[in-house]
Records
---
Amino acid sequence: MDFDLLTSAQSRLNPMNERELDLRGFKIQKIENLALTRDVNDCLDFTDNDIAKLGNFPLMPNVKTLLLHNNRISKIESTLSKYLPNLEHLILSKNAIVELGELDPLVIQFNADGIRKAELYVIHKIPSIKVLDYKKVSESERIEALKLFSGKEGNELLKELTEHGMNATFDPEEILETKKTISKEEQLKIREAIKNAKTLSEISRLEQALQGGIIPEL
């Protein structure tokens, strides 16, 4: 992420009416030098890169959305919320986090038994979250998270998840092995449809189709 990349990357209004900096697919390995952007964007799109650690942000109070789908993130900087104090929308499907203790404002793919606790853990840790894994957080989910992590049993569960984590079944190599191949022309059509999508749910559907090697209805 050097001067040339950050100053040439496209910044535009996205379907959510946010000023979005497009850093998709540049093989970025490390987040750095974002002070060069002068915090003029509401959304930073890091989809389809090679980022392993989420952190190293300057103070960016204007950033409300981070899109980090399909990276290699396994670690999160503990001071992340300090530098992104107004973060509300967080997308981090298809990454490599395996312990809930690593989670602050992140979304990951756990096995069926653990995914609900993962979602509630994030809601509990970041009460300001409004959108989690492309879904709006409801008031009933906030209440559910409060109940789950309240009282003696809730505190013990929170401590257990934070200190020891929870084993995940997500394996990036397994996904690569099983993913079907679609032509470059079809990939370009799907990517163009993603750019023109009007809702987060539509973006999610198209992203998942692209990653899974499936040709969606356009």
---
Amino acid sequence: AVAADGRGSMVFPNGDSYDGDWEAGAQHGFGSVTFANGDNYSGDWWEGRPTGEGALLYANGDSYRGELLDRRRHGIGRCAYASGAAYEGGWRDDVWHSSPDDPSPSVFVSKD
């Protein structure tokens, strides 16, 4: 069982595994989760949702570091794809987005 407030760990019935801060019985503050699909997230939580600054490592090798809203890339962030391509700039609802503050986001390919 998880304390309503404080720090703790929990494995959910769907296979997700969370370790971090709790408030009022929900993930809230800072924490890390391994999702059942193999994705990993470490960062801010708000009322049980990955929201704020964080880092996602997807099971397919892609990674994202930046702002999220309810586990979706939303705000400013950088996504590096397993293919070597990367995008840094604005995101809205998990899709690349150019904003007035970021009129020309940078897209580049890296061949390591």
